[in-house]
């Protein structure tokens, strides 16, 4: 099961939380955090709690958001050269998705910074696809990763090496 810890503004659009605060889900990468970006059209920014990997996707239609998250996360993981065995396992575990409230302030802070940076890149090049923008954000140095791998793309690569079969 995939757990997505959503901000209050996203929960108002996508539905009430159903996941308990202590639930971590069954995915290898752990829970994701999400917020709404009020661009035209609206966008959701997801950030993985373990690697801080950002993923951008369309919000509309909000009623089907939880059903569409797995596909977009898989697309971005594929762009980061994630091994097929890990992709398949993550996709199986992400078929069921529950929304919860945010519990990790550090990840929320990183998500806020990614939202600002994404807006700057989006304003500079509105034609940039969301996957491309996700990849661009993934090379951003993040404070919580300084003692390990500095940026989400490097942290993802290190995490994948640890869990690879």
Extended strand count: 5
Helix count?
A: 6
Counting structural domains, the number is: 1
Subunit organisation of the chains:
single chain
Average pLDDT value?
95
How much of the residues is beta strand, in percent? 15-25%
Protein model, in words:
By secondary structure, the protein is α/β, with parallel strands linked by helices. It has a single domain (2-163), classed as Nucleotidyltransferase, domain 5 (2-Layer Sandwich), CATH 3.30.420. The protein contains six helices and five strands; from the N terminus they run E-H-E-E-E-H-H-E-H-H-H. It has helices at residues 8-14, 65-79, 84-93, 105-124, 130-137, 152-163, and strands spanning 2-6, 32-37, 43-48, 54-58, 97-101. Strands 4-3-2-1-5 form a five-stranded mixed sheet, with helices on both faces. A hairpin with a 5-residue loop joins strand 2 (32-37) and strand 3 (43-48). The chain is globular, with a radius of gyration of 15 Å.
Short description:
The protein has helices at 8-14, 65-79, 84-93, 105-124, 130-137, 152-163, and strands spanning 2-6, 32-37, 43-48, 54-58, 97-101. The chain is of the alpha/beta class and 165 residues long.
List keywords for this structure.
44% helix; globular; DUF6933 domain-containing protein; Nucleotidyltransferase, domain 5; alpha/beta; 16% strand; DUF6933; 165 residues; 5-stranded mixed sheet
List the helices and strands and how they pair.
Layout: E1 2-6, H1 8-14, E2 32-37, E3 43-48, E4 54-58, H2 65-79, H3 84-93, E5 97-101, H4 105-124, H5 130-137, H6 152-163
Parallel strand pairs: 1-2, 1-5
Antiparallel strand pairs: 2-3, 3-4
